[in-house]
Design goal:
The chain has 3 domains: about 130 residues, Sandwich (Immunoglobulin-like); about 120 residues, Sandwich (Immunoglobulin-like); about 140 residues, Sandwich (Immunoglobulin-like), CATH 2.60.40. The longest helix is centred in the last third of the chain and has 6 residues. It is mostly beta strands. It contains 4 helices and 32 strands. The termini are far apart. It has a 6-stranded mixed beta sheet with strand order 10-9-12-17-14-15, with no helix packed on it. The structure holds CU-O-CU linkage and copper (II) ion (CU). Copper (II) ion binds next to loops.
């Protein structure tokens, strides 16, 4: 069995001996989410504490866990030096609670508060994150897991919520790089970190036993990093994507690719023997590293369970492609792109001019972002299909608020429900959904630097 090293912090100085990480979510038992500054031991020994922003003082913030169909109430208290708001990513939510500063609410000023109160209709793995100046606020640590439980417990021994992130840290100071609007990140692949964590630690180590069955809820909270993952000593099935159950669990035989904001639920059986270590392995460009280690203890069961059942489906209206209204979303711009000009503030401007305004990308030739005209206005219940064309040199993770869509495959078949779809460079993909949730919904790239630099539009359902 191969063994994997922990990823070393790039350009690190001094000794890096770190104890196996015991991850902790911030304070769980509270109906308040306090956005605040915090200092945490993010980096290994030899470094001091790193100053972050976190909900209730931690990153990830508290795990919110509730039953399907129940009511989520949280008061956001803003103790930051900057206005903020909370978006509940992937929840089919009432529009006024969607948490988009400047669209569904005003940003909550420093020292003020806002009460979120909504129902969670779907079971699954979701997350919440700041949605004002997200490029900065999510990178600083303002996010946490949101778990909606199915009515009946699964036949598993345990579940682990695994929040993946990468941090861009200055190796000299151990503090976050504070150039959140760096033109290179805005115009290239986004803000890619140099220190990777799971649940806020770089060496998350969990204990397990042979033949245990675990549910792993993977959440990619990073600004821009795509995580390709493999299983080692674990035999697994994908059972849900972006919270939504697959009709048939899919055996994991190839790398699991998780783009920013996406979630993957796995059921895994521990097949490594006692005394060995199983891993979720990240296959990075510089090699393979252990993302999460599972030390296998003595005393496991003699035999494995049979293959898992599908999770109970969340209700959804089937989309009818034949009657769907079609829209096109042309994504252009960025470094090595062919965009020469785009419309900004009502005037056609050259690439240099829009770059001076911090914009590097355009949707259908428009770089206005949230302030621009919507991509589409549709009626409540209208069936919609959007052909997204990635005419850029970078991958993009396109996220629709408020509703899940299905990817349409080459042969016209509908894929599973998702809220974020990854388009690799040069890839075109059509998605379809029933616009059954009234309101103004963002459609944007979840590479957050891209969203800030022009890759944002909205769909109005009225
Ligand atoms: Cu996860 Cu517009 O966000
Ligand atoms: Cu993008």
């Amino acid at each position: 069995m191969r063994s994997y090293n922990r990823r070393q912090f790039i350009a690190a100085t001094g000794a890096l001996a770190a104890l196996p990480g015991a991850a902790a979510f911030a304070n769980q038992n509270s109906d308040v989410l306090s956005a605040q500054e915090a200092a945490v031991q993010l980096l290994p020994g030899g470094y001091g504490q790193t100053r972050l922003w976190g909900f209730n003082g931690g990153a990830p913030g508290p795990e919110i866990r509730l039953a399907q169909g129940s009511r989520l109430q949280r008061r956001l208290e803003n103790q930051l030096p900057q206005p903020t708001s909370i978006h509940w990513h992937g929840i089919r939510i009432a529009n006024a609670m969607d948490g988009v500063s400047g669209l569904t609410q005003s940003a909550v000023e420093a020292g003020s508060s806002f009460d979120y109160d909504f129902l969670v209709p779907d079971a699954g793995t979701y997350w919440y994150h700041a949605h004002n100046r997200s490029t900065e606020q999510v990178a600083r640590g303002l996010y946490g897991p949101l778990i909606v439980e199915e009515p009946d417990p699964l036949d598993i021994d345990r579940e682990d919520v695994l929040v993946l992130d990468d941090w861009l840290v200055d190796p000299e100071t151990g503090q976050l790089n504070s150039d959140f609007e760096a033109p290179h990140a805005l115009s290239h692949a986004g803000r890619i970190g140099n220190f990777i964590t799971t649940n806020g630690v770089s060496d998350l180590t969990l204990e397990t036993r042979k033949n245990e069955r675990l549910r792993l809820r993977l959440i990619n909270a990073s600004n821009a990093r795509i995580f390709p993952l493999q299983l080692q000593g674990l035999d697994g099935w994908t059972v849900a994507l972006d919270g939504m159950p697959l009709a048939i669990p899919q055996k994991v035989t190839e790398p699991i690719v998780i783009a920013p904001a996406q979630r993957v639920d796995l059921i895994v059986d521990v097949v490594a023997d006692a005394g060995q270590t199983a891993h979720v392995v990240q296959i990075g460009q510089q090699g393979a590293f252990s993302q999460v280690a599972f030390e296998v203890r003595e005393g496991g069961a003699i035999s494995r369970r049979s293959a898992p059942d599908a999770l109970p489906p969340n209700t959804s209206v089937p989309v009818n492609l034949a009657s769907a209204t079609a829209f096109t979303l042309q994504m252009e711009g960025g470094a090595m792109g062919s965009l020469r000009s785009a419309s900004l503030d009502g005037a056609e401007q050259t690439m240099n001019e829009i770059a001076d305004a911090g914009r590097f990308w355009a949707f259908n030739g428009v770089a206005d972002g949230i302030d621009g005209a919507p991509l589409a206005r549709v009626g409540v219940g209208e069936h919609v299909r959007i052909a997204i064309r990635n005419d850029t040199a970078f991958p993009h993770a396109m996220h629709l608020h408020g509703m899940h869509f299905r990817e349409i495959s080459q042969n016209g078949e509908l894929g599973p429900l998702r809220d974020t779809t990854l388009l690799e460079r040069g890839v075109n993909r059509e998605v379809a959904f029933v616009a059954d949730n009234p309101g103004e919904w963002l459609l944007h790239c979840h590479m957050l630097s891209h969203a800030a630099a022009g890759m944002t539009t909205r769909i109005v359902v009225a």
